[in-house]
Amino acid sequence: MRLRQYTLRNLSVPLLLILSAWACAFYITIIREINEETDESLTNHKMLIIKAALADSTLLTDHVDILTQYYIHEIPPAKADLSKDVFFDSTRVVPLEMISIPVRGLRTCFRTSDDKYYELTIITSILEKEDMVRATVIGLAILYFSLVFCILLVIHLVFRKSLHPLYVLFDWLKKYRLGKTNIPLRNETKIEEFHILNEAIEDVVRRNTKLYNMQKQFVENAAHELQTPLAICINKLELMSENPDCTERQLSDIASLHQTLSGIVKMNKSLLLLSRIENRQFPETSRIEMNKLVSGIQENLDEMYEHKHITVTVKNSAQLFTTMNESLASTLLTNLIKNAYIHNCQDGIIQITITAHTLTVANSSNAPRLNASTLFDRYERQSRHKESTGLGLAIVKSIAALYEIQVEYNHDKQLHEFKLTFK
Fold first, then answer.
1. Mapping DSSP to helix (H, G, I), strand (E, B) and coil, where does residue 11 land?
2. Where in this chain does the record put each Histidine kinase domain (predicted)?
3. For domain 3-159, which architecture applies?
4. What is the reported pTM?
5. What's the confidence (pLDDT) of residue 54?
6. Residue 284: CA atoms inside 13 Å, Cβ hemisphere, count?
7. Tens of pLDDT along 22-56?
C-alpha cells in the first residue's frame, strides 16, 4: 500500500465518524426545533381559544377544519389540572380519503367565570412537518456525502502534490543502476525536508559509486597481480620437473608444490568471482534455457570424471527458462553439478530433475547428512577432497541470492539433494 493511500485511509475513518456524529446531532436539532415550533403554535392557539371562550360562552363547542381541530368538554373539578399542558403525537383518519395522517396534539384544562372546568384538546396536522423532515434528511444525506467526497478529494490532491518530490526520488532510485551511467536527480522542491532527503540520498549514492569503483579496480588489480606470479611459479615448477638431474624426491616435492599452487589459483579465481558477484558486476542478462545448459555441462563433466563410473540420470519434466547473466548461469550449474561428481562415491549415481520452476541435483555419497546452516558458508568443506576449495557452494548461494533463486538442501535415502527454485 502506498503512503498516500495509507494516509487517506487513516484519515477517512475518523473523518467519517466525526461527520456522522455531526449529521446525527444536526438531524436531532432540526427535529427538536420543528417540534418546538409546532408546540409553540399549539400553545398560542390554545390561548386564543380559551380567551375567546371566556369572552363568549357560545364558543365552548368543538371545531373541526382541514388542518386543525379542537374539542371542548366539561370535566369534574377533581380531574382538572390547570397548571399542566400535555403534548402528544397521534394519527387522524381523513373521512373522505380514508387515510391516516400524523397529528400533534395539546391537552389542557381551564376554568370559566362561573367556576366550571373544561378540558381543551387541540389537534393539528403535521404533514408539513413530515415533509420537512423528509426533505431535511435527503438534503442532509446529499450534503454529508458531498462533504465527505470533497474533503477526501482535497486531501488526496494535497497529498499527491505534497508527496510528488518523494515519488520522484523513489522512481529515480528504482532506475538507478550501480556501475552504469545514470541520469542525474532532478527533483526541485520548496519543502525543506525533501530537499535534505535529496541531498542525503545523492551523497550516499556518490559514496557507494566511489566504493564500487574502488572495489572493482581492486578486483581487477588483484586478478592481474596475483594470477601472473602464480602462473610464473607454476611454469617454473613445470620446467624444473623436466630437468633430468631431479631426483625422485625432488619431483615429488615439485608435484606437491604444483598441486598447492594450482589450488591457490583456483581459490583466487573463486574469490575474485565471489567479489564480482557481490558487487553486481554482471549486469547483462538474457533468457536462458536451463535444460540445454545442464546437458552441455553434464557431458563435459562425464568425460572429466569417467574414472569414477558415475551413472547420471537427467529427467526433463518441462522446459525451465530463466532470465540472468549467461556466464553466471553456467557457473551456478557447473558448481552445483560438479559438487555432485566430486563428493560422489565410486560407481555412484547422480539424478538431475528439471521442472518448469525447479532444478534438483541429487548424488549418492558415503558422507552423512550435512549441516544445512553452514553448508553454503565460505571454506565450509564437506570433505577434505583435494579438488575442493570450499567455495563452490558459497558461489552457488551468492548467484542464487543475486537473482532471488531459492536454494534448499535435503538428505534422503543416502542421497544428498540440492534444489533450486526459480521465480
1. helix
2. 221-423
3. 2-Layer Sandwich (3.30)
4. 0.50
5. 82
6. 3
7. 888 888 888 888 888 888 888 898 898 888 888 87
